[in-house]
Each structure stands twice: as structure tokens, then as C-alpha cells.
């Protein structure tokens, strides 16, 4: 199957790596890709958000499946343009991708579907000063202040500090976006990726991301600094419960609205005293969780994505997974997330092997691999135990050099020590 993947980050490198080892995929292309992806697929210098250019490329190549990695092309309607051109596409329509693109829309869908989530209130540019202050009184501390637009997971501030919360409210409003204030959900977070084809929902392995920049969950929110899978602390039947109480009703509600969901529904949930509650939805695979999750997939990724794209997900065999743990540790550039330094030389071992180092923000400067983004590499580890998987990843991290870079040293550490607890299982 000739396949085109759109995007250029770690998630797309992980998708390409999983497709590359899959017998169903015969010819692999990516736009625009990155130096890691270029080792496994033919890369094309096409902007993934330019629908006309993407359709032209897909037609010229004669692809049988287009896989959209990031949210920006989804929100720009690239999936609709590809579908109109008769190409099987993995990725929801622009209308369905609003589940990620507008947090207020996601709340509306959850309310209609009876899905548990945080209380929320929208603030707008014309919200009166006293109403903003009253809303902050009602919701915090802890304050959860979200930019109600696309921010790649970076537009959220979670803080006990009233001044910091208010500053983020003001900054988002000043940028012309609405703000969503939410009640803080207790309990550890789960990222559950679900393949959704209308009303058929197939979950992948559950994973956990680490969103704060520094150890002990300190520092600013990032796109994600490391992840592991599966989750030793998740209660028996936890995945099925998230599907039953969250993903399935949302899929059915989207069908009821006439905008069936066809792609990857990323359920970000906090498992607190009231059971799993939605923190956020994303309309695409999560980054960096995709890296460890797909590294354990034994079944054909190409077949699964094609089944979603063609409405035949209920017909494929159950997904099979390696009986192991996997982890990834993100090597971030100096200054990430505020102002990452770019152009530093990257050297070391495993840079040409996706099972060791996934490229997230790299480019070639002549022959030299250099940093080109905030999250530069996503270093991989696998093992029979979570401890083994983490040790393998950190051993590889220590064999890579990037001036000024930093990593979190505690990815998966609490889970490996048995210190992740659910407040009280319902
Ligand atoms: N890992 C967070 C995200 O993909 O948004």
C-alpha cells in the first residue's frame, strides 16, 4: 500500500517507523518529513497545511492512504480536500477536528454525550473585569486557564498562583482568543488513543505523558517531556471504562451531529476520585506518547489506519501488542519551551535508528544534524519491566550530545516505584 504521511515531528517519525516495518506498506512517502524520517521514507518539500499542494502530491504519487499527523492540517481542512479528491485519509474532517480546535465545542459535545469532564466557563474580550475576578474566585486555586484555540498543548497554565493565572487570562484575551477556565481534576493522567471510524472504537495501549518542563512536575507546561506505556497503576478494565464512558459516547454524539469522527481520538483523562474525567481531546496521535505506544504494536499499523479511512475498522483482527514496556525521554533544546535555541550540532549514538532515537526537531545543515525545534529528539527504551524500559532510554540519552539541551530525569519514575495512586477507585 502506497502511503503518504503528513508532518515533520517525532509523532510522524514514529508513525513512519511503524509503517516501515509493516508488510502492508510497500512505498512510504512523507511531507515535509525530517532527517530521521528521510531514512525510511521519500520526503517531499510540501507544506502539510496547504490543501491544494497536498492533494496534488497525493495524486501525483497515486497514494492509497494519506495519514495526517499534526492538528494544523486537520483544522485547515486538508483531510476534507483529500477525501473530496477520492483519496483514503486517516484524519477527521475539519468539522470533527473541532473537538481539539475548540475547547468550548468539545465541552458542548461532552455535555450532550453525558461524558464526565471538568466544569468550565468561557471568558471573552468583552467579559467585565469583576466577572473575570469572580470566575477566578469560583474556579481556583488550583487555576486551570486554557487558550480556547490551537496551542499544541502549550496554551494551558495550571497554577496555584492567582497572579500567574490572571496574567495568562490577560495574555490569551489580548491575543484575541477566548479563555476557558476549568475546575482542577485530581488524579493521575492517562492518554488513551482510540481509532474511531464512526461508531467503531478501538483503543491502543494507555500511556502517560509528563507535561511540565522540569523534574517533579515543576516549570512551565510543554508539549510533553517523556512518556511510558502501558500503565501499571491503571485499574483492571480501565481502558474499557474510558472507551465505554468517554470515547464511545463522544463517537456516537459526533455521528448524531452529522459529523462522524474518522481518525484518532486522543482522550486525555484524569483518573480521580470520581473515576476518569476528560481533561482534553486531541484529534490526532499525541506526541511523545505515540513513540512508545507504536513501538509495542505487533499488528499492521497500515491495515488499521486504512480500515479507519475506509470505514472498515470493525472488520480487522484485534490489535496485538508486544508483552513489554516502552518509554521515551525527550531531549529538549536550551530555552524550551519559551524560546528554544536552534542550530546546535547533534552527535552521538543511535541517531540513525528509530528504535533508539526518534527525530522531533532536527534538520541537516550540510552533512551535520542540528537542532531545529524545542523538542529535538525522543529517545526510546523498551524492556520486560518499566524500570528496564526507562533504564534503556536513559542509557541512550547519555550517549547523545546536544549543547545546552536538557531532559527530565524522572520520566515514569513514580510509576516504576509504585507511587502513582488513584484517589479512590469507583
Ligand atoms: N502529549 C501531549 C499532546 O500530544 O498534546
Name the CATH architecture of the domain at 2-93.
3-Layer(aba) Sandwich
The radius of gyration is: 20 Å
Uncertain stretches of 5 or more adjacent residues: none
Average pLDDT rating: 95
Number of strands: 24
Structural class: alpha+beta
Strand residues, percent: 25-35%
Bound ions, cofactors and other small molecules, one mention each: glycine
Major sheet summary line:
5 strands, parallel
Helix content: 25-40%
| Shape summary | globular
Q: Largest beta sheet: what is the strand line-up?
A: 3-2-1-4-5
- How large is the count of helical segments? 13
The CATH topology of the domain at 2-93: Rossmann fold
Q: How widely separated are the two ends? A: 45 Å
CATH class of the domain at 2-93: Alpha Beta
Annotate the secondary structure layout.
Elements: E1 2-7, H1 10-20, E2 27-32, E3 42-43, H2 51-61, E4 65-68, H3 71-75, H4 78-84, E5 89-90, H5 98-101, H6 103-113, E6 120-123, H7 129-139, E7 143-147, E8 156-159, H8 162-174, E9 179-182, E10 189-197, E11 200-203, E12 208-209, E13 212-214, E14 218-221, E15 226-229, H9 238-256, E16 262-272, E17 275-282, H10 290-295, H11 301-309, E18 325-332, E19 347-348, E20 357-359, E21 362-365, E22 368-371, E23 375-383, H12 386-397, E24 400-401, H13 413-416
Parallel strand pairs: 1-2, 1-4, 2-3, 4-5
Antiparallel strand pairs: 6-9, 7-8, 7-9, 10-11, 10-16, 12-15, 13-14, 15-18, 16-17, 18-23, 19-24, 20-23, 21-22
Helix pairs in contact: 2-4, 6-9
The protein binds glycine.
Organism: Corynebacterium tapiri
EC number: 6.3.4.13
Domain ATP-grasp: 107-310
Amino acid at each position: 500500500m502506497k502511503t503518504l504521511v503528513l508532518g515533520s515531528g517525532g509523532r510522524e517519525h514514529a508513525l513512519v517507523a511503524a509503517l516501515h516495518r509493516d508488510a502492508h506498506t510497500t512505498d512510504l512517502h512523507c511531507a515535509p518529513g525530517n532527517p530521521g524520517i528521510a531514512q525510511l521514507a521519500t520526503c517531499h518539500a510540501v507544506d502539510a497545511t496547504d490543501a491544494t499542494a497536498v492533494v496534488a502530491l497525493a495524486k501525483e504519487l497515486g497514494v492509497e492512504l494519506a495519514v495526517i499527523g499534526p492538528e494544523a492540517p486537520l483544522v485547515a481542512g486538508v483531510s476534507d480536500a483529500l477525501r473530496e479528491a477520492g483519496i483514503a485519509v486517516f484524519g477527521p474532517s475539519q468539522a470533527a477536528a473541532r473537538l481539539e480546535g475548540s475547547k468550548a465545542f468539545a465541552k458542548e459535545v461532552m455535555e450532550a454525550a453525558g461524558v464526565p469532564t471538568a466544569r468550565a466557563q468561557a471568558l471573552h474580550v468583552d467579559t467585565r473585569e469583576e466577572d473575570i475576578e469572580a470566575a477566578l474566585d469560583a474556579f481556583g486555586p488550583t487555576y486551570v486557564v486554557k487558550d480556547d484555540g490551537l496551542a499544541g498543548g502549550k496554551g494551558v497554565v495550571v497554577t496555584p498562583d492567582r497572579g500567574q493565572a490572571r496574567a495568562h487570562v490577560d495574555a490569551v484575551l489580548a491575543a484575541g482568543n477566548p479563555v476557558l477556565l476549568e475546575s482542577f481534576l485530581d488524579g493521575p493522567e492517562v492518554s488513551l488513543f482510540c481509532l474511531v471510524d464512526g461508531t467503531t472504537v478501538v483503543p491502543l495501549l494507555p500511556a502517560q505523558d509528563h507535561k511540565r518542563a522540569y523534574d517533579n512536575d515543576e516549570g512551565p507546561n510543554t508539549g510533553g517531556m517523556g512518556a511510558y506505556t502501558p500503565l501499571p497503576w491503571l485499574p483492571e478494565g480501565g481502558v474499557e471504562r474510558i472507551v465505554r464512558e468517554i470515547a464511545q459516547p463522544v463517537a456516537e454524539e459526533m455521528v448524531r451531529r452529522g459529523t462522524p469522527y474518522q481518525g484518532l481520538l486522543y482522550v486525555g483523562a484524569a483518573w480521580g476520585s470520581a473515576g476518569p474525567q476528560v481533561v482534553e481531546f486531541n484529534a490526532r496521535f499525541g506526541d511523545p506518547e505515540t513513540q512508545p505506544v507504536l513501538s509495542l504494536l505487533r499488528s499492521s499499523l497500515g491495515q488499521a489506519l486504512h480500515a479507519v479511512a475506509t470505514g472498515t475498522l470493525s472488520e480487522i483482527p484485534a490489535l496485538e501488542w508486544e508483552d513489554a514496556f516502552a518509554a521515551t525521554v525527550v531531549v529538549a533544546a536550551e530555552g524550551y519551551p519559551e524560546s528554544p535555541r536552534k542550530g546546535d550540532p547533534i552527535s552521538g549514538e543511535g541517531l540513525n535508528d528509530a528504535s533508539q532515537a526518534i527525530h522531533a526537531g532536527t534538520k541537516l545543515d550540510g552533512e551535520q544534524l542540528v537542532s531545529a525545534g524545542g523538542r529535538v529528539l525522543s529517545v526510546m527504551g523498551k524492556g520486560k519491566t518499566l524500570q528496564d524500559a526507562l533504564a534503556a532510554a536513559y542509557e541512550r540519552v547519555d550517549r547523545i550530545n546536544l549543547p545546552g539541551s536538557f531532559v527530565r530525569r524522572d520520566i515514569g519514575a513514580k510509576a516504576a516505584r509504585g507511587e502513582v495512586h488513584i484517589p479512590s477507585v469507583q
